[in-house]
Amino acid sequence: MALTEALDAAHRPSAKKQSPFRLSSITPSSKYYWVRLLLENPAVVASLCFLLLMLVLALLAPVIAPFDPNFVNPADRLDPPSSRYW
Asked: In whole angstroms, how large is the CA radius of gyration of the chain?
């Protein structure tokens, strides 16, 4: 009898360990269910940070590179690299 109880206990599902990223108990009826579910995944958070960085760089493109890429200045074409055209 003890052997069958031990085998049953070995096949019973045990309580899963909680992830260190768990915010709290999430239920599908929660208001921000999908947001909280996605924020628990570190890969999703890293991807969102990368997309946010790309968006900020795209919005600041005129400030970062103020020169027209199609304009060629023949007088400056043989100048060595400088801080003006980095």
From this structure: 28
pTM: 0.51
Confirm if 37 and 26 have CB atoms less than 8 A apart.
yes
Sign of CA dihedral 38, 42, 47, 48: positive
Residue 80: other Cβ atoms inside 10 A: 4
Q: What angle do CA 55, 83, 62 make, to 5 degrees?
A: 30
Q: What letter does residue 83 receive in the DSSP assignment? A: S
Q: What is the pLDDT of residues 40-72, one digit of tens each?
A: 899 999 999 999 999 999 999 999 888 888 887
pLDDT at 67: 81
Helix (H, G, I), strand (E, B) or coil at 18: coil
Which pLDDT value is given to residue 54? Answer: 98
Integer Cα distance of 29 and 61 in angstroms: 42
